[in-house]
Write a structure and sequence with these properties.
Two copies of one chain form a homodimer. Chain A has one domain (about 35-75, about 80-265): 3-Layer(aba) Sandwich (Rossmann fold). Helix content of chain A is about 40%, strand content about 10%. Chain A contains nine helices and seven strands. The termini of chain A are far apart. At the A-B interface, helix 1, helix 4, helix 6 and helix 7 of A face helix 1, helix 2, helix 6, helix 8 and helix 9 of B.
Chain lengths: ~270, ~300
Amino acid sequence: DALKSGPTAHQITSAMSRAAGPDLAEASEERRFLSTAEAAALERELLEDYRFGRQQLVEWCGHASAVAVTKVFPLPAVSRKQRTVLVVCGPEQNGAVGLVCARHLRVFEYEPTIFYPTRSLDPLHRDLTTQCEKMDIPFLSYLPMEVQLINNAYRLVVDAVLGPGVEPGEVGGPCTRALATLKLLSIPLVSLDIPSGMPGWDPETGGDAEDGLRPDVLVSLAAPKRCAGRFSGRHHFVAGRFVPDDVRRKFALRLPGYTGTDCVAAL
Amino acid sequence: DALKSGPTAHQITSAMSRAAGPDLAEASEERRFLRSAGEGDGRQEHDWKRAWRAWGARVSLTTLTLSTAEAAALERELLEDYRFGRQQLVEWCGHASAVAVTKVFPLPAVSRKQRTVLVVCGPEQNGAVGLVCARHLRVFEYEPTIFYPTRSLDPLHRDLTTQCEKMDIPFLSYLPMEVQLINNAYRLVVDAVLGPGVEPGEVGGPCTRALATLKLLSIPLVSLDIPSGMPGGGGCWDPETGGDAEDGLRPDVLVSLAAPKRCAGRFSGRHHFVAGRFVPDDVRRKFALRLPGYTGTDCVAAL
């Protein structure tokens, strides 16, 4: 009958693949980073084969990024200044993740402010923007070039400007100028997926250390990218619990264990 | 400059409205409420209810539960005004439901049987939440099995089904009527058959038969949003009131989605959670809902 033959047979099969000896596991799961092309392929698999929606992926990444922020910068009981966060969003998917991150920071009782100079016309971006506006998250009309003003007003900055595969030259003047200002920050910087870079910066290799931002915290989305190998900041998280086991195995990724219901793991 | 005038001014304004003494907050709630009541936003409330709410807002009473109409209005506000997607809402609810399961039924280190969960999904939104819940239980290393007899053709449902299939979650082709088989095979059952506003008679034979079997369960039952009810059966079961105790399921755990519904007032099980962290403060205040205490980054709170 269905009860005895269906799930139990499946469970036996799963048990066999999970309990397979260390040889099998080690041989196939040695890699810790994805190239830009592989990251795109992994995302395509989630969207096309698994039929996840882009809205889902962006939501998981943004939520997990906000959770990572709470782990490194927990809310103090008292100080109001200590709750302020500046989230700088680019026009592509990394920026969408930033918008979601800002909204969840608001839910977690931080006080995010968004700088989103080059707005995408994409419906998902527009909806995410509306969600932030309706939740009373202020949008700055411009970012001061005087970095001390930013240092004074915010506890930390979230860099959601560029993701892997986006040429720094594509994002336009305001984002480029923002990145130039962020390079001079003295407050902590949290980069989503990869540290955003300047024109000429190569996301594959991490390029010349002069060109990219040097964040204190990196939140790798789905899995760490190549340039995470050069990350020298204090905290590296991976937000990849939503990646199904089979996909992780297919890309031969060795990733840390998540505890309980956590959506991020510290590397 | 933008930094001094923009966010700081806003922050001051926000700080004023948040930290304001009860008078200012209550007055602004009252204004907001009366304005919306006056605009006739289609909630179809009786005048006496509106007056009661206005008085309640003035004296900072909050309600604990939403009627079916109010729940629908809250959802409409999230979808139309806030531009959240239905995919987002269903995902938050399903994920939070899975988290609630882990809180009540934590994974033991050893026993395999203790990881098995049966998730029974109806054809409407409650069933979609069940599909998401099953997927997250899988991520949390439980072993869910889904019974989803009446499949919706809705693209969201189809995608959620594909996601579960791709993650190797088995779908039962039929549910045994012999309840002892279910008691033996699973540690608990998740009831995602009916949500508020769905007539039990709408969901078709297989779901109705499944509910009849679930009524006889001896293993724990977790209901999503409301305990699913039975059609007819000596006076129709009414999601508003919780109806005749004979007709609806009597779960051990209730996970209220967004906010508790009226029938949660009759809930007599062991654990009641609310999965409502995604409800923005302004919406919560508009519906005069009491804010449950969420800790840290938790998405569910125990009531």
